[in-house]
Description:
By secondary structure, this protein is mainly alpha-helical. It contains 9 helices and 3 strands; from the N terminus they run H-H-H-H-H-H-H-H-E-E-H-E.
Amino acid sequence: MAEYAHNHPMPVGSKLKFGIILTGLILVVEIVGGLLSNSLALLSDAGHVFADVIALSLSWYGVRQAERPASSRMTFGYHRVGVIIAVVNAVSIFAIAAVIFYEASRRWQQPPEVNGALMLGAAIVGLGVNVFIAFWLRKEQQTNLNVRSAFWHVLGDALASVGVIIGAVIIMLTGWFIVDPIISVLIGFIIILAAWRILKEGLKVLLEATPQQVNVHRMVSALKKIKGVKGVHDVHAWSISPELHAMSCHVLVSDLPLSRAGEIRRELEKVLRSQFDIEHSTLQFECRECGTNDLFCSLHPEECADEPESETR
Length: 313
């Protein structure tokens, strides 16, 4: 884990910071262009760009926070600060979509005149910059879930810009100003989908749900195949942040020397890292069965209280 943090955060952080600046410029261009051209579609796309700024900022902030050391008061570090901010921002994005839908319904009744040429120019600028940012982050998004989320935000905004461009061309060729609120509604739904993904991911982390890529039953089965492991129970699997996963469990083994237990622990950790993307694990070794050996712990503190046990990390 230390090697990953050493090799990746600085270049990824620099790329994300530059992406935030470029996306912020798109936001300004589309807000100004939308106001001058009287295009709700362009202003709606600006709302989507705002969601992209949030996604990129959270990704950058997540990289920075991951570098902060744990302390006696924050033993897991500061990874979840970004998650809380993501949830709050997702709710704000829903509010932006609501404003877009309200304004679109008003314009549907009386479509105002729209400057198609100005609308087209601003959308082309937005499309060009978003394609550049997506291309720039294409490698990092393959290995970093945090960056992947921002990558798909930017790619989604590029598609929204394509919609605005099509709408601008239709308005310029036909004068059908009704196209503007129609495209605005479509972009509003894109914003809602982006916000829902952020909100759902953030809530899963805060509720300490099992990471999506972890099948607990398959994981336990894989751990039991390791030589020396007689059983696995009281399993907990959760995410500290969307890209950092953890688990804890009780491991039943024979009464054996601590050195041999250490070898088994290393094999367990290897399987958890390679097959289930779990870097942080806490394994409690036991040579006698608990009173209850349920796969999932019911969190009753009195369980196993009288059982002698040894631990290794």
